[in-house]
Queue: 2 jobs
Job 1
Amino acid sequence: EDQVTQSPEALRLQEGESSSLNCSYTVSGLRGLFWYRQDPGKGPEFLFTLYSAGEEKEKERLKATLTKKESFLHITAPKPEDSATYLCAVQATGGSYIPTFGRGTSLIVHP
Amino acid sequence: EAGVVQSPRYKIIEKKQPVAFWCNPISGHNTLYWYLQNLGQGPELLIRYENEEAVDDSQLPKDRFSAERLKGVDSTLKIQPAELGDSAVYLCASSQDRGELFFGEGSRLTVL
């Protein structure tokens, strides 16, 4: 069974204080790993897809990286508008391609 | 381009009452998903459609939940009768070629 574990559950940062969110996964074969951002009262918003170990994707202050067992979402010099819940999901090969989501990391960035 | 549209955004009902949620996916997306999200949890799949066909519905509580996707476009998720534990956010998402999902804003259900 595919498993996704995100840590920490919650993270509080000061504006400008860089940090990383972790997504550990167990899957028979990885087709893709996805990162989403979810604001309160909204649906998740797609950020990145990573397909193979060593791959990196960047968008503004966010950079996602992937190894064979985990992915990191690095946040450089965050701003208060980066406050949100960040969700990780994995999609396995050889199956129904249904993404399995983690519980998310709630990020609060204080000004 | 319009995103995934869901309605209603909020619904409050008494237990044992029926409720229905509607979803219009992004044009051209043949895969449609219904997810359930409880507070502090990640989305959990209820059902997935490939065009008109429900291809993954093992997590759908079929004694009270039903779904349909007529003509492979819009979809409706129904609960009858609703129970207190059904209070949650119901998310609809669509994708092209089984890639990244695009979500609607969700329908928040409160069962009293």
Job 2
Amino acid sequence: DQQVKQNSPSLSVQEGRISILNCDYTNSMFDYFLWYKKYPAEGPTFLISISSIKDKNEDGRFTVFLNKSAKHLSLHIVPSQPGDSAVYFCAASEREYGGATNKLIFGTGTLLAVQP
Amino acid sequence: KAGVTQTPRYLIKTRGQQVTLSCSPISGHRSVSWYQQTPGQGLQFLFEYFSETQRNKGNFPGRFSGRQFSNSRSEMNVSTLELGDSALYLCASSRHTLDSQETQYFGPGTRLLVL
């Protein structure tokens, strides 16, 4: 049962344009969401996060939007740069037993290619 | 501030052997989590340690175990290795309080190949 889904395995955009990566989840108990960027054979690099009490969080070129009613989040990268080319994972966590947990459930990833 | 470090970076073992991987968290971080990444299953949670106690465990067999030391460093052990255990093993650390989620920062991983 895939609780976090990234339905687009790959995405190609032109340099300078907007990249929009999407993520859907099924568990309504998820209350913290993160986006990571990953290169092969390396650890994921944290990009941006959002708590379920917010619907938007910005950090430089990266903005994450959360739509709790649709159980959907998206990552916008503006403007896209060739160095952004990598696999992007969304991840979610939930409170368990009344406390915070570090158990992250990851999506399957989206390969972003930014063309010069 | 130094990032999460993992040793060794690469490892080759044969079926039936056991292996121990090590993780040093970012200074001041008390929570350490372990993940396995394989082409077929993606990134999967193994377990989380906080203050030397396992707080959470993923859906993996008992051959996978871990521990955390008083300095927050962590080790994970896999006994009786199987071919399917070949993977990238990732360690992540966070400040982690019991009241709120904190961002997890990942190390570079240990690439394990089981022959």
